[in-house]
Amino acid sequence: LIRGPHDSTIIEGSSVTFQCRVGGDPMPDVLWRRSANGGNMPLDRVHILEDRSLRLENVIPDDEGEYSCEADNAVGAISATGTLTVHSHPYLVIRPVPQVIEGIRDASFECKSEGRPKPTTFWSIEGNRTLIFPGTKFDRFETSNTQEGLTVLTILQTTKADNGLVVICSAVNSVGSISVRARLTVASQDDLPPPIIILGPTNQTLPVKSVVALPCRAVGNPTPIISWYLD
């Protein structure tokens, strides 16, 4: 074996080549394998080059693992292994969404990031350079992590002055970064439109002991609470 594969770390979506240059008399046959615990060889994206190197196109995180070059002839056999590590840009699986609240109370925004290596997630407020990391507090803003992996920003005791506030969830790793914004709307009772019943019950005449269904669907902000009364 003149030159075997080396460990490689690449970014998702790019290509990688594992070398396997061999010599011998007679010339050895070359076979590429993927380690048993790494899954199947992605044959639709694999090419064997003229020098018997292995080229893997459009790499994905599932391609991580060990790739072995095995050479053998009538005299003997030899092998060498290279490990592939795939890094990917951070992305948000849960994004903060705009919040509309009424009165003086706490408001919370949720965010969850993934990527390779694992991203660092933090919050900031538009117009303010302070970064708020999980487990820290800045003024009335505090952050925490949940067991489900969420990073939560809580704004304590919001007031009318917080109306229009924009919070930013950011995730960063060695490959790149991503940021998503969400706006807080603080409304008083007078600012909010009344709920609207979009599907209400209608008069019905039925036989005794029969079953009746009375629909009621309503929309509004905040979401209305539906109650039934017998007159």
What does this protein look like?
It is a single chain. This protein has strands spanning 8-11, 16-18, 29-34, 46-48, 54-56, 65-72, 77-94, 99-102, 107-116, 120-125, 131-132, 137-138, 141-145, 151-155, 166-172, 177-187, 196-199, 217-219. With 231 residues, it is an all-beta fold. The chain is elongated and about 100 Å long. The N and C termini lie far apart (91 Å). The mean pLDDT is 89.
How would you briefly describe this protein structure?
The chain is mainly β. Helices cover 0% and strands 45% of the residues.
Give the total of beta strands: 18
What is the total number of structural domains?
2
> What general outline do the C-alpha atoms trace?
elongated
Helix content bin: under 10%
Largest sheet: 8 strands, mixed
Strand content bin: over 45%
- What is the helix tally? 0
Keywords:
Ig_I-set, Immunoglobulin-like, Ig-like_dom, cell-cell adhesion mediator activity, immunoglobulin domain, mainly beta, 2 domains, eight-stranded mixed sheet, 231 residues, disulfide bond
Topology overview:
Blueprint (H helix, E strand, L loop, with lengths): L7 E4 L4 E3 L10 E6 L11 E3 L5 E3 L8 E8 L4 E18 L4 E4 L4 E10 L3 E6 L5 E2 L4 E2 L2 E5 L5 E5 L10 E7 L4 E11 L8 E4 L17 E3 L12
